[in-house]
Design goal:
Elements (H helix, E strand, L loop, with lengths): L8 H4 L4 E5 L5 E6 L21 E6 L5 H10 L8 E6 L3 H10 L4 E7 L12 H11 L1 H9 L3 E6 L18 H13 L9
Parallel strand pairs: 2-3, 2-4, 4-5, 5-6
Antiparallel strand pairs: 1-3
Protein name: Alpha/beta hydrolase
Amino acid sequence: MSGSLPPDPVRAAGPPLVTAGRPGARRLIVLDPAGSAKHDGLPATWRPLADRHEILWYRLPAAGAWAACVEALAAPAGRLHRGDLVVSGPFAGEALRMAARFPGTLRSVLLVDPAAEGTISPGDAQSADETWFVRHGNEIAVLRELGIDVEMIAHSTDEADDQLPPPLPLGHGRVVEALRRTLDSLPGVGHAEF
């Protein structure tokens, strides 16, 4: 796993996987480099999404999280249940490669601050993310040919309600709102399906 994080015992404490929502509903598969959901519950901003989705929140600092995610993606999914992979920061490139391995399981890869692999100021996040998209253009094109949408849904800014160094936390309200809008716009999603 190329997006490895330096060991952090505080972030690593807790379960590698937190599940919530409706089993059998469309899956939101979350790769969280920050290790949120440490106490076996979703961030509060994500709880409304659990009403319409099955959420698999992989806490990447915890041992076994990456392997458990690969195992979940390897399980076959019906066309109606292809999931959406949400990832931020240093694992974005690895998530693209993982999606290419399991195209029948995923409908989309949704990125938050994909360029946040090093130190980037919040005000530079958008241009860094755009450069990242160009750099990974071939991988993204392959995924799109496989029927997997790839979109950047949010990035850090230097606005007053943000000013966090990238990557923007997945529990940030702006991330969740952008995720909701994106999910509603993706093909195959309609409120009747939920």
